[in-house]
Amino acid sequence: MSKDTSRDVRAWLRSLEVFAGPLATFDPAAAPDEPVDLFLSWLTEAVDAELPDPHAMTVSTVDEHGEPWARVLILKNVDVDGWQFAVHADSPKGHQLAVRPSAALTFYWAALGRQVRVRGPVIAEPADRGAADFLARSVPARAEALLGLQSRHLADIAERDRVIDKWRSRVEQEPDLVAEAWTLYTLVPVAIEFWQADKSRVHTRLSYERTAAKAPWQRHLLWP
Ligand SMILES: Cc1cc2nc3c(=O)[nH]c(=O)nc-3n(C[C@H](O)[C@H](O)[C@H](O)COP(=O)(O)O)c2cc1C
Questions:
Q1: Given ligand 1 and candidates 53, 59, 74, 151, which is best to mutate, with the most ligand atoms within 8 Å of its CB?
Q2: ipTM over 0.95
Q3: How far is residue 153's CA from residue 168's CA, in Å, rounded to a whole number?
Q4: Which pLDDT belongs to residue 213?
């Protein structure tokens, strides 16, 4: 891209609106003691507002060289014990979690002007829980996980379709087949931040922090 074009892009980006939606409101004084309760109420509002993929989140990890990585995953469950996602352990994110079992999650519900960030250690759940999650997946999703090549270089699209077709047939014939490396992970939160946008740009932030899993939560307002 030439420098002239990049100047145009800068102006174009500056012209785009942010926080265009009617936006939600947030009164931190009324926030519950347990952050998962607040998260579930914000998630419920996102679902009720019919936002697309309300349970999609960016999962950030760090590799053995300290390099950051991030990708979008689907939230599988959340309760007082933590936020859960399931992935193939033999994938880049699985390898990163093996060497650095810690992650950050970011949810963004744009139309409501809300962001939630969650950070903490990640534990791999026992194999039977990973298997139960795997068997609840669709046939194509199970086939992709069984072939176990996620994020590897692919020679051509025809090869992808041929191999996936082969695994789909196998899953249809053997519906109890489980990818052993499919793993359910729980992020045990030590820091959770709720961020509410305001059109005035005076945003409201509430953080819950604790020194260790199961320790009591401390609440702090944060400067926007
Ligand atoms: C909305 C959305 C949902 C996704 N859900 C998953 C998922 O549940 N599991 C998964 O392995 N990848 C999922 N992906 C793909 C990941 O973002 C990522 O491309 C893939 O897991 C490879 O990541 P890695 O190379 O860091 O291991 C999803 C992508 C999007 C956009």
A1: 74
A2: yes
A3: 21
A4: 86
* Closest atom of ligand 1 to CA, residue 72: 17
- Residue 117 confidence (pLDDT): 98
Mutation test of ligand 1: which of 51, 71, 138 has the most ligand atoms closer than 8 Å to its C-beta? 71
Please give the full DSSP string across 32-94, using - where no structure is assigned: -SSHHHHHHHHHHHHHHTT-SSTTEEEEEEE-TTS-EEEEEEE--EEETTEEEEEEESSSHHH
Using CB distances shorter than 6 Å, the residues near ligand 1 are 53, 56, 69, 71-74, 87, 91-93, 150-151
Q: What is residue 202's predicted lDDT score, i.e. its pLDDT? A: 93
Q: How far does the centroid of ligand 1 lie from the alpha carbon of residue 104, in Å?
A: 15
Residue bearing tokens 């009617």: 22
Residue 138 φ/ψ, nearest 5 degrees: -70, 165
b (16+ CB within 10 A) / e for 153-171: eeeeeeeeeeebeebbeeb
pLDDT, position 6: 64
Q: List, for the chain, all residue ranges whose pLDDT scores fall below the cut of 50.
A: none
In the chain, DSSP finds a helix count (H) and a strand count (E) of 6, 10
Q: Which residue has the tokens 């992650």?
A: 103
